[in-house]
């Protein structure tokens, strides 16, 4: 059974709005996308890459994040050690180490290729720490999300045939038995 590009767009818009709202991501923060276009069309991750699927998905996400002032990072496949494609502006602002590689359909993947074509001045970085992200097709984005990670279950659990998960994050709670995690004025304790 073939996957409709129109249905992918419609489902992705619903999933993305849900995840962005519930993640608490704000303007100026980073959102990671992991994408297996192979899984979206019912294939095996890394074996059936679809340039068209990558373009449809990444262009919709790119447009939505741009409207909100959120930075996009697109994770590559294991052939690029899961490097992240970002705008040079972000890499320089966050002092991220740029690495020398250009994505291709079978080394980086369809998502990175689509992002490379959409971004103004795309570069690859080896490591990044993002506020939240979406994983379309079980690509393992967790290595790029801040600690402590919080799983988000989307209102739709699949995009095409791909399993969809998402992560957001919160600051670590530190301290011992006397630690308090919400402000209470001294007067309220009396």
Structure description:
The structure is a single chain. This protein is of the alpha+beta class and 190 residues long. The protein has a single domain (5-189), classed as 3-Layer(aba) Sandwich (Rossmann fold), CATH 3.40.50. Helix content is 29%, strand content 21%. The chain contains five helices and nine strands, in the order H-E-H-H-E-E-H-E-H-E-E-E-E-E. It has helices spanning 5-23, 37-40, 51-68, 88-93, 110-118; strands at 30-35, 71-75, 84-87, 98-99, 122-125, 132-136, 149-152, 158-159, 162-169. Strands 1, 2, 3, 4, 5, 6, 7, 8 and 9 form a nine-stranded mixed β-sheet that branches. A hairpin with an 8-residue loop joins strand 2 and strand 3 (84-87). Helix 3 packs across helix 5 (110-118). The longest helix has 19 residues, at 5-23. The protein is globular. The protein starts with a helix and ends in a 21-residue tail after the last strand. The mean pLDDT is 93.
How many β-strand stretches? 9
Helical fraction: 25-40%
Poorly predicted ranges: none
Query: Mean of the pLDDT scores?
Result: 93
CATH architecture: 3-Layer(aba) Sandwich
CATH class: Alpha Beta
Terminus-to-terminus distance: 67 Å
How would you classify the helix and strand content by structural class? alpha+beta
Which fold does the CATH topology refer to? Rossmann fold
Estimate what percentage of residues fall within beta strands: 15-25%
Task: Give the helix tally.
Answer: 5
Strand and helix order:
HEHHEEHEHEEEEE
Number of domains: 1
Gross geometry: globular
Q: How would you name the CATH homologous superfamily?
A: Hypothetical protein TT1679
CA gyration radius, whole angstroms: 18 Å
Largest sheet data = 9 strands, mixed
């Amino acid at each position: 059974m073939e996957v409709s590009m129109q249905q992918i767009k419609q489902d992705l818009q619903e999933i993305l709005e849900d995840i962005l709202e519930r993640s608490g991501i704000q303007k100026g923060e980073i959102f990671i996308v992991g994408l297996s276009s192979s899984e979206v069309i019912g294939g095996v991750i890394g074996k059936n890459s679809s340039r068209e699927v990558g373009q449809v998905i990444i262009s919709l996400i790119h447009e939505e994040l741009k409207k909100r002032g959120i930075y996009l990072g697109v994770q590559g496949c294991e052939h690029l050690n899961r490097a992240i494609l970002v705008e040079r502006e972000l890499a320089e602002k966050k002092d991220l180490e740029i690495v020398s590689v250009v994505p291709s359909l079978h080394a980086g993947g369809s998502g990175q290729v689509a992002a490379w074509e959409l971004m103004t001045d795309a570069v690859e970085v080896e490591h990044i720490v993002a506020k939240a992200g979406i994983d379309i097709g079980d690509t393992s984005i967790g290595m790029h999300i801040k600690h402590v990670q919080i799983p988000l279950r989307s209102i739709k659990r699949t995009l095409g045939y791909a399993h969809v998960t998402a992560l957001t994050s919160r600051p670590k709670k530190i301290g011992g038995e006397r630690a308090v995690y919400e402000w209470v004025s001294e007067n309220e304790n009396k």
